[in-house]
Write a structure and sequence with these properties.
362 residues, globular, 8-stranded mixed sheet, single chain, alpha/beta
Length: 362
């Protein structure tokens, strides 16, 4: 027989490593279930309402792109409110315009006016006498980014959240348009951040706030290390796929897995949470504003971090709340899924620098 050339052996070995790695991960995860017992994080009972000293805001960072999409954002915000009515729970749209070649583009004002009018209409419909209005809009202007060569919102989603945290403590410089009285948000202790397509089921906000408020889960920051070392500044709920999105196409039906609610399962085991008492933050969850800012504020360099969620979870320490379930849509087309995974992969490569002894920003 003719021996294979070295390049063919190397290629075959690489393919074998990729194939066996998936099996190895599955075996390790299976074995871990015998070494660690899953534990549900303790929770305070907020079923009667969120206390005043644990006031919470639901924030949805998003882009204003089309008038119909603005209407959809407003409708989704109202649905979250109707499922989570609480006088100490506020709902905030954090918006940018899409990247552009100029600071101001045709149609910008119409989009912003639609969002502004929509928030005012929601407050007129749902505000109650003697209580704060539940809905807010905070919009940022475009900034020139010389590295990207475009006008864009500073640091995109991460920048919106960082500037929103500053706004909650009275520093409003990052926002050019504000609907609602920002002083009414200064006593917000927790923020539940959601993507624009993430659904917040009935009373999920109270359950998340009650879990983060429990004394055993409260974060303790190590000033020397500059990160949370005990408790959690972030809690990540379990995320499932909506049944509607799983039926939109054959591609979604094939790859979305089992959508909807599992009526037989309340808490789900997670290897990282069970073994290390920590989970991975994927950008949807609740965080303690002051602890989060102390751990991550100003530490990440500009134009360097796309997958900021994993770093935020590492600095601020994230815990998994697997008995609280959120829902989001699954991409209905292959091209959308590939684009999303390309963005995730690119972001993971960017943060490899944080595996070194000295990391960027320190």
């Amino acid at each position: 027989s003719v021996p294979l050339p070295a390049w063919a052996l190397v290629g075959a070995g690489g393919l074998l490593v990729v194939a066996t790695s998936q099996l190895a991960v599955a075996i390790v995860h299976w074995a871990a279930t015998f070494l660690a017992q899953p534990n549900i994080l303790p929770r305070l009972d907020f079923s009667a309402g969120i206390p005043a000293n644990h006031r919470t805001a639901v924030a949805v960072p998003t882009l204003l792109t089309e008038l119909e999409e603005v209407d959809h954002l407003l409708e989704a915000l109202e649905v979250r409110f109707l499922a989570n009515r609480d006088p100490r729970l506020s709902f905030v749209l954090l918006t940018d315009f899409r990247d552009a070649a100029h600071e101001h583009m045709d149609g910008d004002e119409a989009l912003l006016e639609r969002a502004r009018a929509g928030i005012l209409a929601l407050n007129a419909r749902h505000a109650q006498a003697g209580r704060r209005p539940p809905f807010y809009l905070l919009h940022r202007p475009r900034r020139w980014n010389p590295r990207e060569g475009v006008w864009m919102g500073w640091e995109r989603k991460r920048g919106k959240l960082e500037q929103f945290n500053e706004a909650l403590r009275g520093r409003l410089g990052g926002f050019s348009t504000i609907v609602g009285e920002p002083r009414e948000l200064r006593d917000v202790k927790y923020v539940i951040v959601l993507d624009s397509d993430t659904q917040l089921p009935r009373d999920a906000a109270r359950e998340l706030a009650g879990t983060l408020a429990h004394p055993l889960n409260r974060p303790r920051l190590d000033a020397r290390l500059g990160r949370v070392v005990e408790g959690y500044a972030i809690l990540q709920p379990r995320v499932a796929i909506t049944m509607d999105s799983a039926r939109r196409s054959g591609f979604a039906g094939l790859f979305a897995g089992e959508p909807g609610i599992d009526p037989y399962t309340r808490a789900v085991s997670d290897v990282y949470q069970d073994l290390f008492d920590e989970g991975s933050f994927v950008g949807k969850g609740i965080y303690d504003v002051d602890a989060f800012q102390a751990a991550i504020g100003g530490k990440l360099p500009e134009n360097r971090v796309l997958s900021h969620d994993l770093l935020e979870g590492a600095y601020a320490r994230a815990g998994l709340v697997s008995d609280v379930l959120l829902f989001e849509d699954y991409p209905s087309a292959y091209a959308v899924e590939v684009s999303r995974r390309h963005r995730w992969t690119r972001g993971d490569w960017q943060i490899m620098a944080w595996l070194r002894a000295r990391v960027p920003g320190n």
